[in-house]
Amino acid sequence: MKYVRQFLIILLISLLGELLHHWIPLPVPASVYGIVLMFLALEWKIVPLPAVREVSRFLVALLQLTFIPAGVGLMTKWEILRPVAVPVLAVLFIVTFLVLFVAGRVTQALLRRGAGKEAEDG
Amino acid sequence: MAEFFRESACLGAFLSLGTFFLGEWMRKKWKLPFLNPLLIAIVLTIAVLSLLKIPYDTYMESAKYLQFFLTPCTVCLAVPLYEKFSLLKKNALAIGLGILAGTLASLVSILLLCLLFRLDHTMYVTLLPKSVTTAIAMGVSEELGGYPSLTVVGVLVTGITGNVFAAGACRLFRITDPIARGVGIGTAAHAIGTARAMEMGETEGAMGSLSIVVAGLLTVVGAALFAGLY
Q: According to the 3-state scheme, what is the secondary structure of B156-183?
C-alpha cells in the first residue's frame, strides 16, 4: 500500500500539471508545471518527503527509458531532415557544447568569486 | 506476425528496455563514452524495426505505455531538487546568472549560425528553442511559425549529444564544480542531459532539474524576442 500511495501522490501532481497546461495558454508542458507543483508541495510540507521518497527514486531512475519512444521517432523525420541535415546537425552540436561551456563556466566563476562572502549573500 | 506486433501490448516496451539494457551492458564491458545506453537503445530499436519492416506507429502501439511515464518521471525530478534546495538558495545568484548566460548563448549562437549557414527564417525559428525540453520547444516553435516536428528532432539530437558527451565536455571545459556541471548540462541538454547528470551525482542532477525549468521558461520569452531579429 505504501508504494501505491506514493505513486498516487505523484500521479495526482502530474494530473494537476496537465490541468494547468490545459488552462494556461503558454507553451509550457504539464511536466514542467508538475516539477514546480511537486517542489512547492514538498517545500510547504503539503507532501512530506517520506510520502513520495521510494517511488520517486524509482521513477527518476526510469527517466532515460521514457525518451526511447520519442528518439525512435527520428526514423519518421528523416525525410524532412535530409536536405538540411548537415548545417542543422552542425548548429545542434555547436550550440549544445557552447551552451554547456557558457552556463557551466559562468556558474563556476560566480561560485568561486562568491565562495568567500557566501555567508552574507545568504 | 505483423498482426501480432500490432496487437502486442509489451513488444515496444520490451524492445526499448532490452536494447537499453544491452547498451548499459556494453558500456560496462568496454567503458567507451560514446557507448551511451540511450543512444544504443534508439539506434538498435530503429535497426530492429527497419529489419522486420515494422512501422513506427505499430511500435508506438505498445511503446506508448513506456512514454506514459515521461510526465510522472519528470515530475519526480522535483524530489532531488528539494533535497538540494539549501545548496541552491546559498548559490542562487551564480546559478541564476549561469542559466541566463547559457540561454542567451543558445539564442545568440543559433541566430549567428543560421545566418552563417544561410538557413531560412522558418528553419531559424524551428531551431531557436532547441536547447529546452521537448514540450516547451514544440510549443515555442509552433507559436513562432517553425516546423514543430523538426524542432523535436533538434531537441532530441541536442539531448542525446548532451547525454553522451556530458562527462567528457565537463572535463574538457574544466567544469569541476558539481553545481556548475548540473547547470551546464541542464541548460544545454534539458531532461535527456539531466538524466545523465543524475548518474554523475545528486547535486548535478538537482541543478540539472532546476535548469530545465528555468531555461525552459526563459526560452519562452527569449525566443519570442529573438524571432524578430532574422
A: HHHHHHHHHHHHHHHHHCCCCCHHHHHH
Among B70, B90, B179, the residue with its CB nearest the CB of A107 is B179
User: Touching check for A25 and chain B: CB below 8 Å?
Assistant: no
Let me know the angle formed at the C-alpha of A62 by A56 and A68, rounded to the nearest 5 degrees.
145
pLDDT string in tens for chain A (122-residue length): 899 999 999 999 999 999 998 999 877 778 888 989 999 999 999 999 999 999 999 998 888 888 888 888 888 878 877 888 899 999 999 999 999 999 999 999 999 987 755 455 44
Looking at the structure, tell me whether residues A95 and A113 fall in a common domain.
Answer: yes
CA pair distance A76, B60, nearest whole angstrom: 12
Residues A59, A111: one domain?
A: no
Residues A59 and A101 in one domain: no
**pTM for this prediction:** 0.81
Report how far residue B212's alpha carbon sits from residue B171's, in angstroms, rounded to the nearest whole number. Answer: 22
Contact A38, A13 (CB under 8 A): yes
Looking at the fold, whether A100 and A90 belong to one and the same domain comes out as: yes
The alpha carbon of residue B26 is apart from the nearest alpha carbon of chain A, in Å, by 16
ipTM (interface predicted TM): 0.85
Q: Are B91 and A111 in contact (CB under 8 A)?
A: yes
Q: Which of B117, B158, B116, B119 is nearest to B137 (CA)?
A: B158
Q: Which residues of B touch A97 (CB under 8 A)?
A: 161, 165, 169, 188
Query: Where do runs of H (alpha helix) occur along chain A?
Result: 2-23, 30-43, 53-62, 68-72, 74-81, 85-114, 118-121
Q: Do B94 and A74 touch (CB under 8 A)?
A: no
In terms of CA atoms, which chain B residue is nearest residue A39? B78
Query: From the CB of residue A11, how many other CB atoms can be counted at a distance below 10 Å?
Result: 14
Specify whether the CB–CB gap between B207 and B150 falls below 8 A: no
